[in-house]
Specification:
Elements: E1 3-7, E2 10-13, E3 18-25, E4 33-39, E5 46-51, E6 57-59, E7 67-72, E8 77-82, E9 91-98, E10 111-112, E11 116-121
Parallel strand pairs: 2-11
Antiparallel strand pairs: 1-3, 3-8, 4-5, 4-9, 5-6, 7-8, 9-10, 9-11
Length: 122
């Protein structure tokens, strides 16, 4: 069983940066694939980024080159560094975890955080 708690969201102007954190409880964090998804108002939840237990990273095309996902297994924490933010990045950001291989499908992740709001003003 894994519990996930996101933090770091907020209101920023376009072009600025934010770093989201996701703290995980439970054992064997280092064996989990960790991912970030986001959901904008009126839209489906979408994949943002993932990092495997071997630290291989994957990104949605919309954030490639602007966002960086990383993990600190000693702190049971995964991060999402978001640079050059755009108004279209406004969404609730969710952390997800699973011991299966990386996937861009939300149905592949068994564990979810409660989400943190990111709002980017123009």
């Amino acid at each position: 069983q894994v519990q996930l708690v996101e933090s770091g969201g907020g209101l920023v102007e376009a072009g600025n940066s934010l770093r989201l954190s996701c703290a995980a409880s439970g054992r064997a964090f280092s064996t989990y694939t960790m991912a970030w998804f986001r959901q904008a108002p009126g839209k489906e939840r979408e994949f943002v980024a993932a990092i495997s237990w071997t630290a291989i990273t994957y990104y949605a095309d919309s954030v490639q080159g602007r966002f960086t996902i990383s993990r600190d297994n000693a702190k049971n924490t995964v991060y999402l560094q978001m640079n050059k933010l755009k108004p279209e990045d406004t969404a609730v950001y969710f952390c997800a975890a699973d011991q299966r291989f990386y996937s861009r499908q939300e149905g592949s992740y068994n564990y979810w955080g409660q989400g943190t709001q990111v709002t980017v003003s123009s």
